[in-house]
């Protein structure tokens, strides 16, 4: 029997991207070179880590997420996945625990700008 505690994240100095396992049937592979910024907020006992990439925004909810933020800062984060509630008691204090992951596709600013320009062009044609 393994004495290693379960982990919901992985760190690899050679990683070129982050595999985000949203659930058993859905995962994303987001390249480090498309990482834009991170934001960590405390909400009571829990934390929310927002990771923004060029194409996706990933919201990670859990506890002790600072280590994950630091791994992303170093471009070494290689895996994010939720930890089943049945395994959370096996995690030692201070270790990251991910309860929930939500990933949303980001609308590219170029598309927004193009849509705004198109609207302006139409307005000029009406004059």
Can you characterise this structure?
Residues 118-127 have low confidence and may be disordered. This protein has a four-stranded mixed beta sheet, covered by helices on one side. A four-stranded antiparallel beta sheet has the order 4-5-6-8, with helices on one face. The chain is built from two helices and eight strands; from the N terminus they run ββββββαββα. The N and C termini lie far apart (77 Å). With 127 residues, the protein is of the alpha+beta class.
SSE ordering: EEEEEEHEEH
Overall strand count: 8
Helix content: 10-25%
The rounded Rg comes to 19 Å
What kind of sheet is the major sheet?
Answer: 4 strands, mixed
Counted by DSSP, the helix tally is 2
Poorly predicted parts:
118-127
With strands numbered from the N-terminus, the spatial order across the biggest sheet is 1-7-2-3
N- and C-termini, Cα separation: 77 Å
- When the domains are counted, the total is 1
Structural class by sheet pairing and helices: alpha+beta
Q: Give the strand content.
A: 35-45%
Mean pLDDT: 83
């Amino acid at each position: 029997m393994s004495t290693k505690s379960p982990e919901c994240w992985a760190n690899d100095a050679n990683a070129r991207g982050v595999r985000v396992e949203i659930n058993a049937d859905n995962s994303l592979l987001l390249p480090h070179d498309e990482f834009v910024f991170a934001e960590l907020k405390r909400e009571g006992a829990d934390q929310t880590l927002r990771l923004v990439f060029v194409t996706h925004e990933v919201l990670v909810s859990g506890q002790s997420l600072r280590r994950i933020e630091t791994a992303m800062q170093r471009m070494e984060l290689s895996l994010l996945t939720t930890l089943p509630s049945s395994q959370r008691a096996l995690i030692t204090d201070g270790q990251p625990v991910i309860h929930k992951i939500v990933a949303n596709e980001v609308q590219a600013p170029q598309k927004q700008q193009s849509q705004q320009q198109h609207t302006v062009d139409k307005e000029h044609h009406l004059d």
